[in-house]
Every structure is written in C-alpha cells, then in structure tokens.
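Sharing a chain and its predicted structure for anyone who wants a worked example. Both blocks are below, sequence first, tokens second.
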Amino acid sequence: MRTTLLKTASTLWALAAVVLAQPLSAQAQELPPLPQTIKDAGVIRIGVKCDTPPFGFSGPDGQPTGIEVAMAKQIAVYAFGSPDKAELTSVTSDARIPSLEAGKIDLILATLGKTKKRAEVIDFTHSYYWGTSSIVVPKDSPIQKVADLAGKTILATKGGSQARWFQANMPKTEVMQLNTTADSVQALLQGRADGYAADGEVIATIAFNNPELRVVEEGFDLGSNGIGVRKNQPELLAFLDAAIKKMKVEKFQAGVVPKFVDNAGLVKLMVERYETDAPPEAEMH
C-alpha cells in the first residue's frame, strides 16, 4: 500500500511539473522558430527609444520604459519565456538603422515608420501601429493648420519621417533637425522655431506636459510603424510577424497603453490603432 501511495504521489508530482512547464513551452510552440544565432545567444537584442514618450523613454530608475519597451520585453517572453531575455539598447532616430546594419542589435522597435526608402536597406514586419504626425506650437501662436507653416521654421528629429515630409511637400518651410525630442522641445520653448513635428501621440504627450504649448489639430503624413530587421532574415520576420499577431489577439496593448497615457480619449484611440490593421494608404509610403 505504501509503495502504491508513493507511486501515486510521484505520478502527481510529475504531472504537476508538466502542467507548470507548459505555459513557456506552449508559447514557444505557438510561434515560428527563432534563427539559430539568436537561440544560441540566449537573448534577443532590441533597439528602443529612450526620448520619445509614451513609446519609449527613460524611467525614474534610468531604465528604458514605455509602450514599445513593453512590447520588446513581451517578444523576449515569446522567444525565451522571460522579459529579462530582451537586451535593450537605446537608439536615436538617426542611429536606428545604422545600429541594425552594424549588427549591434537584432531588430528595431523604435517608432520606425515604414517607408519605401527605408525598405531599400532593411526589411519590415507587418505594421503593428498606424497614425498621423502632428505639430505642437506655443499656445499664443497664430498657426492653426499645417499650411500656416509655409515660410516658417519647423523642428523635427533627425532620422524621422517628418523632416522628409516637409522637404517634399512644403519646400518653403525651413526644417531644423535636432537629435532628440527633448532638444526639439527645448528649442521650441526658447523661440528658435515656430513648431515641432513628430508622431501624433508624442506631440499629445508633449502638450499635456507643457501647458504653454498646444497641438495643431490638423494631422499630416499618415503612416504605419513596423519592426525593422536586416535584409534576408525570413525566420526572424516570420517569428516577429507571429508575435505581433499574438499581441493583437491577446489584446496586449489594452493593458499596456493606460500605464503610459493619462488621457482616456487618447488611450482609446491608441489601443484601436494597435489592435486594427493599418489602412492601405498608411502602408509603405
């Protein structure tokens, strides 16, 4: 009888061990395999923003945080079962693609808009977010719409899509390109330009935190963001596309966005744009 009980107990412990182990193995089985080089490294190296709230910024402890940082850590969970397996590197807009090409990171998850020009040098996943760019101006500025910036000076972050949009669509507008969002906001507050253009959600966050500034209601440059990888990496692209789809199915962003965005209306809009497919006109422009 004692032997039977011991065998039964052993069986139950074995079954419990299998059940406890299943979540991590199930996650791995649900997604396509990682490239062998990343498996061997045991970490996935991801370039993220640290100057672009709410997507990526430095937290009180100096560590990266934000919506896309949470996504990066979730990708590591899907890949290795732990958010600690995401090796995060802070990248500025103009350093994103050079860092990827130099092999310093495995992928870019840093507000990277999908454009035909960028697609000539890197590959993109399916879009994970879409929206428009916006402009923030001093509260007493006469600028009410984008066209009012003709002949004036607009700030834009180096390497971002907004500078190229103004150069192509409003050549009479002078574009002043600075390294970071913080540099651009400071320059605007100092009166060195008439406005600052960036992703709409970034602009909304800036205006919320700076009561002396306001958002120009008209958006521009409809586009979508994707994860960037080096050319000819079909395994990594397949894994990341599946990870993006899994986040949408699990409504991952519905739990993440409210942690970094205070405005209820903006939270609703952003979650919708994460969970829905980008319209055709927002894709690869």
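Comments welcome. The CA atoms of residues 1 and 7 lie 10 Å apart.
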